[in-house]
Amino acid sequence: MAGLSLPVIDLAPLSNPHEDHASIAQLAKQLGRAFEGEGFAYLINTPLTLTHEQVFGLASNFFQLPEAEKWRLTKKTFRTENSNTYRGFFPAQFGSDNLKEGFEIGPHEPSTISKSTEARIDLTEANVWPSESIASSGFQQASEKLYDELQDLSSKLLSLLAVALGKEQSFFNHYLSGSISTLRYLHYPAICPPAPQQELCCTPHTDSGILTLLHQDATGGLEVLSPDGRWVAAPYVPGSLVVNIGDLMAKVSGGRFNATYHRVRSSPGVERYSVPFFFEPGVDCVVKSVDGDGEVAVYGEHVLTKMKGWVEFQDTEKKVPGIVIDVEAIDPEESVR
Questions:
Q1: How far apart are CA 228 and CA 64, in angstroms?
Q2: 3-state DSSP call for residue 151?
Q3: For position 189, what pLDDT does the model report?
Q4: Residue 19 CB coordination number (10 Å)
Q5: Closest listed residue to residue 81, CA positions, set 313, 312, 332
Q6: Alpha carbons 47 and 14: distance in angstroms, whole number
Q7: How confident is the model at residue 47 (pLDDT cuts 50, 70, 90)?
Q8: Residue 326 neighbours by CB under 8 Å, 6+ apart
Q9: Gyration radius (Cα) of the chain, Å
Q10: How far apart are CA 13 and CA 44, in angstroms?
Q11: 196: burial class by Cβ within 10 Å (0-12, 13-18, 19+)?
Q12: What pLDDT is stored for residue 305 in this prediction?
């Protein structure tokens, strides 16, 4: 399959302590063109301090935790006695073409969290963490650092998008108030014979929100729907992040930007890790087109509506059979080493 030639955007100017207005304008132009066209781009020379190896080390360390510890962190939709509804672990489900397990993290500073009134899903709940005694040393601290750096990068990209849309750099600053962005560690388990093979481990979709930043590993598998209707590979580029926008940002742009369909193809017998970061405004943030027309959305209401179609948030009894974690096989009192 031929690869899609995604734009490569060099973010080195963002690390310049003295803002260069010409460089910022050029970056805004490049980012705007990418989202007006392919809807995806590679970012290089990002200001992140954690390397790809460190990021995927964090993901690997989490998914190697004992099953009982992961079960302790599982969302309420999979383990009804747990209280966490939005943050935490969700197990993989065979047969759904969404074969992945994940661990989700939100903001860790209480001052950044808005009030949520939703009864079943609390978008502003606190994070849950594995016990430090069994997790890799420093897992929580490193994850929080990664979260903060990705949130900061997202804010800088939003300022560039504002310029690309003909607005002041500060135009989207209110999106940062009470932001509930999500850092998600994902593991796609290897499917080995005699287990039936699945063509996809993540079905075609567009992201629902504002902005997504993705660490993908060298396994590959990410495919993007081209403007002419072909599924084409978006291969791993060492040291890069993949960036794309969601449906809501496409509306905010007045239709100038494209939220592009993408999927993940299975690699038989090979496991895969990816670490997406979804920038999300505060639950009470009013999101509307830069043109001042069209639909107006309150972000919390928007995401709760979208969530009804996400497999990890559907009621347990409606899920596809075959959850990887076998409840009957786990002793809740098991001593985890």
A1: 41
A2: helix
A3: 84
A4: 10
A5: 332
A6: 7
A7: very high
A8: none
A9: 20
A10: 11
A11: exposed
A12: 86
Token pair listed for 333? 């009192």
**Interval 283-326: pLDDT, tens:** 999 999 999 887 899 999 988 888 776 666 655 434 433 333 33
Q: Which two structure tokens, joined as six digits, stand for 93?
A: 């489900």
3-class state of residue 272 by DSSP: strand
Q: Is the per-residue pLDDT at 146 higher than 50? A: yes
Q: What is the pTM of this model?
A: 0.88
Here the tokens at position 123 are 């978008």
Write the CA distances from 334 to 69, 70, 82, 202, 330, integer angstroms. 9, 12, 17, 32, 8
Rounded CA-CA distance 107/126 in Å is: 8
The secondary structure of 37-68 as a DSSP string is: TTSEEEEES-S--S-HHHHHHHHHHHHTS-HH
User: Which pair of tokens denotes residue 117?
Assistant: 């009134």
Give the single-character DSSP code of 174.
G
- Lookup result for tokens 């992040």: 241
Q: What would the two tokens of residue 98 be?
A: 């969404």
Kindly compute the dihedral angle of the four CA atoms of residues 176, 181, 183, 188, in this order, to the nearest 10 degrees.
Answer: -140
Nearest CA among 138, 123, 125 for reference residue 285: 123
Residue with tokens 């803002």: 19
